[in-house]
Amino acid sequence: MDKQLTTPLTAMLQPGGMPLDVTGYEQAGGYEALRKALTMTPEAIIAEVKRSKLRGRGGGGFPTGRKWEAVPAGPGAPRQRYLVVNADEMEPCSFKDRLLLERTPHQMIEAVIISAFAIQADIAYIFVRAEYVLAIQRLTRAAAEAQSRGYLGANILGSGFALTIHVHASGGRYICGESSALLTALEGRRPLPRSRPPRSAMSGLWGKPSVVNNVETLCNIPHIITHGADWFLSLSRCADGGTKLYGMSGRVQRPGLWELPLGTKLTEILEEHAGGMQPGYECRAVLPGGGSTAFVMRDDFDVAMDFTAMRTVGSSLGTGNILALDDRRCPVGMLHNLEHFFAQESCGWCTPCRDGLPWVERILAAIEAGEGEAGDLDTLAHHVSFLHSDSTFCDLAPGAMAPLGSALKHFRAEFEQHIREKRCPWHDTAEGWA
Amino acid sequence: MSTAEQDRRDAPLEAGLRQEIAALAQHAGHKRAASTDALKLVQKHFGYVSDQHLAEVAALLEMTPAELDSVATFYNLIFRRPVGRHVILLCDSVACWVMGAAAARAQLHERLGINPGETTADGRFTLLPIVCLGHCDHAPAMMIDEDQYGDLDPAGLDAILEGYK
C-alpha cells in the first residue's frame, strides 16, 4: 500500500539518513498541499483540521483545530500574529521530533507555511533546542530553499500571503518547552512561564496573538490538507485521528521509532516493533510517554496507546516515546534520577516547585543510599498530593509527580525494602554498563 | 590559560564582533530578542562569557547587565566561566541512566581525572552533565562540542576521546 497513505509522516524518509532537498521533495509530491491550501480559506482549513481530530503530539493532547480557532480572526483582528513551532524536545526519553526535523525538514517547513496561513500569521519561529545541531542546519537550509522557490516571502505563490520563518536555537533549558516560557525566551528574557489568562492565542509573543504547536503535530497538517479529515480519521485505531511516532528505549532488542496507528497497543510496540527485551532482562514497567508520565505496569501492557485509553491505566500518552524499566535496575534509583532532572530544571519561580522538588530528590537519594527513615514515604506522598496544578505556576512539578505517585503505589514494597534493610537491593548492578 | 589568551578574554569586544551583535539585534526587531544569539556568539569566540563581555553585550542590546545575566545564567549551554578546549556533555537523564551512563561517567573520571563540572588540568576537556539529548535509542549518549555520540561502550569511549586534542 502507498506509504503516503498509511505512514504519512515518515513516507519520505530516505535510506541512508539524508533528507530530500527541495527538488526531491517536490518530485515526491511536496508543496502540493501548500498549493491546495492557498486555494482554501483559512476558516476552511481550520474546519478540516478540527474535523480530523488531530490532537497535540507534544504531550498535552489539546485539539489543534480548537487551539487555532481561539486566535482572533477577521478584518478587525490584531496584527501581527505569530506561529511558533515547539521543537525544544527535552522531555526525558523522547526523541521523535528529532527524526522529523533532521530527516524531513521540508515537510516541517511546508507544515509551518500552511498552518501560518490558517491562523493568518506573518511571522513563524521554529524554536529548536541547541543540541539539535543537525536539525538547525537542515531547517535553515530548507527555509532558504523554500524562499528561493517562492514558498516563503512577500507574496507566496502569487497568493498575496506573506510569511517569514526564523529558526531559533535555544540556550538549553527544559522549561522552554512550556509554551508560555518559550515565548518569553523568544523575547530574550529569562524564560519563566507566564500566568494565564490571557491565553497565548490572545496575547502571546510581544503581546500579539500566538499559537505554539509541537513538531509532530504540525507535520500532520499537509497530509490532512491533501487527503482530507476522513482519511486522517481512518488512520487511527481510536476516536482521535492520525498516526503516532511511537518510540522505545531501554533494554529492548531494537530501540527505535515507528509510525503506527494512534491507539496501537503498548504490548505490540514492545514485542513486535522493539523485538521484546534483550536476553536476560525482564520488563517490569514502562514510562509510556516521557519523564512526566506515570508508570504502566506489566499487567496493563495490553492498553492502547492513545489519549483516552492511557487514562484508564492511570497514566497518559505524553510523547508516546516509551522507556522500559527492566528487572536489573532499581525503581527507587530511577525515580531519583527523574526527580533530580525535574529539581534541576525547575525555573525557580514558584515556591512549591523550587523547594518541593529538591526536597523530594534528597529524600529519594537518602532512601537509595540506605539512609531512608520511616516517615519518608509519607513525606513523598504529601508532595504528590500537594504539587498539583492548583498549587504550582505551570505543569512542571505536577508532571514530576506523575512517575513518583505511581511508583509509590506500584513499587511500595521496593521502597519499604530499601528503608528496612538500609541498602539498595540492586546496589551491585547500579553502576555497571549492563 | 596563557597570559595572551587571558588578555584577549579581558579585552573589549573587537569592532567586528560588536557589529555582528548589532546586526543580530537589528534583525530581531526588538534588540533584547537577540540576547541568546549574542551570548552564544561571544561564547563561540571566547569559550565563555566574561563579566566584561556580558556588560558590553547588555549595552548593545539596551539591557542592564543584571537583566542579561539573568538570561545567561538560566541556560545550561551558556557558560559564565572558562571551559576547556572541548566540552563533553554527558547525558544524565533516565534513558541513559537505564543503559549505563553511570559507568560512562566513571570511565571518564578514570581517564580524565575530572568530575562533572570540572576541567582537566591541561585545559583539554570540561565535563558537564546534560539533560536528555533525544538520542535515547542509542543510549548511553553524549556530545563533544557539536558532535553527537551514542551506543557508548568502554572501548568506544576511549577511541572517541582520542579524536579531541
Q: SSE layout and pairings?
A:
The complex is a heterodimer of chains A (434) and B (165).
Chain A: H1 3-6, H2 22-27, H3 32-39, H4 42-52, H5 64-69, E1 82-87, H6 96-103, H7 105-119, E2 123-128, H8 133-148, E3 164-169, H9 179-186, E4 210-214, H10 215-219, H11 221-227, H12 229-235, E5 243-249, E6 256-261, H13 266-273, E7 283-287, E8 296-297, H14 309-312, E9 321-326, H15 331-345, H16 351-368, H17 376-386, H18 396-410, H19 412-421
Parallel strand pairs in A: 1-2, 1-4, 2-3, 5-9
Antiparallel strand pairs in A: 5-6, 7-8, 7-9
Helix pairs in contact in A: 3-7, 3-11, 4-12, 6-8, 7-8, 11-12, 15-16, 15-18, 16-17, 17-18
Chain B: H1 3-10, H2 15-28, H3 35-46, H4 51-60, H5 65-72, E1 86-91, H6 94-98, H7 101-112, E2 125-130, E3 142-144, E4 147-149, H8 154-162
Parallel strand pairs in B: 1-2
Antiparallel strand pairs in B: 1-3, 3-4
Helix pairs in contact in B: 2-3, 3-4, 4-5
